[in-house]
Design goal:
Helices cover about 30% and strands about 25% of the residues. It is built from seven helices and 13 strands. The strands form two sheets. Strands 5, 6, 7, 8, 9, 10, 11, 12 and 13 form a nine-stranded mixed sheet that branches. A four-stranded antiparallel sheet has the order 1-2-3-4, with helices on both faces.
């Protein structure tokens, strides 16, 4: 085991995650590369869940230097374990959890990790270490085969669905406001911190403006958006995020922007689209578009 040391490790981890994702039949038992990118360029650079991506990443390598497992801090006190299927042993998982608790955890606070439904042996291991199943929200990992026909989902009359324009158009600022309203509906507008954070998305290797889809109201203001991250190596496309302003919800805009993005990704060669949902409203939308779902359950321990 060692901590990440330089940018070369970032690219090696991405290649490893792609390999594992394909070995797991494109199931997210751990992370796929697009989620790792989103974590680095948004959750670390903007949200500051950890001090740096290097500080939140650890590698396990074999004697020849090949990566066998990766540990990431999705946030402080939250560990993501990605293990190559050929190396999944209780001893390795135990070592990874020990490192996670030591380097990522905060004493006397709750520490989380996850049990994917395709890792049925992990609950027993976690119970032995003092974990219990959390009463928090489960991650619903929704999947849609893009080789099958896609539905039609036209926007309401007067609304337009299209890719976002360039930064000089002012639409990136509008989209940031949509994000604030959608994900912070109970916070005062005075707490809004601006839009510069979205510039980090452009630095992500998988960002494409033609898969950054917005819905514009009749007055041309942006009121909903989604970003689809297409990985042409695994031919998989991940939605993150999907946002509709509260006063424009239940109009079919979320469905319209997601279907538009899937049509575009399919034309590029994507075979699979995925999205994760945690609450009732999001899962209701995703259930209408994604016929398959895996569950990823949080487990918790007080350190």
């Amino acid at each position: 085991m060692r901590a990440c040391q330089h940018n070369d490790d970032y690219w090696r981890i991405r290649a490893f995650l792609r390999e594992v994702y394909l070995c797991n039949d494109r199931r997210e038992v751990g992370w796929q590369a697009s989620r790792f990118d989103y974590w680095r360029w948004h959750m670390v650079e903007n949200v500051r869940v950890v001090a740096s991506w290097e500080a939140g990443s650890f590698l396990w390598e074999n004697e020849s230097g090949r990566i066998m497992a990766v540990l990431n801090a999705d946030s402080q006190n939250e560990a993501i374990l990605t293990i190559h299927p050929n190396c999944q042993t209780p001893e390795l998982e135990t070592d990874m959890l020990t490192v996670a608790e030591q380097y990522l955890g905060i004493p006397r606070q709750r520490f989380f990790t996850f049990v994917h439904e395709r890792t049925p042996s992990r609950p027993q291991l976690l119970r032995q270490r003092g974990y219990s199943e959390s009463d928090g929200k489960k991650e619903h990992q929704w999947r849609r085969d893009l080789t099958t026909p896609l539905p039609d989902a036209p926007p309401p009359e007067g609304y337009t669905v299209r890719p976002i324009n360039d930064i000089d158009s002012g639409e990136w600022q509008q989209r940031s406001w949509v994000s604030w309203r959608a994900f912070h509906p109970d916070e005062p507008d005075e707490a809004y911190e601006g839009w510069d954070w979205s510039l980090n998305w452009k630095r992500s290797p998988l960002y494409r403006r033609d898969l950054d889809i917005v819905a514009a109201a009749p007055d041309r203001q942006i009121v909903a958006y989604c970003v689809l991250w297409y990985d042409d190596v695994t031919r998989s496309a991940l939605f993150d995020p999907v946002a509709v302003m509260p006063e424009y919800q239940r109009l079919g805009l979320g469905r319209a922007i997601m279907v538009e993005a899937m049509h575009r990704a399919k034309s590029m060669g994507a075979m699979l689209a995925t999205v994760s949902g945690y609450d009732l409203a999001a899962n209701a939308l995703y259930r209408s578009l994604f016929p398959e779902c895996d569950l990823n359950t949080p487990w918790v321990k007080v350190l």
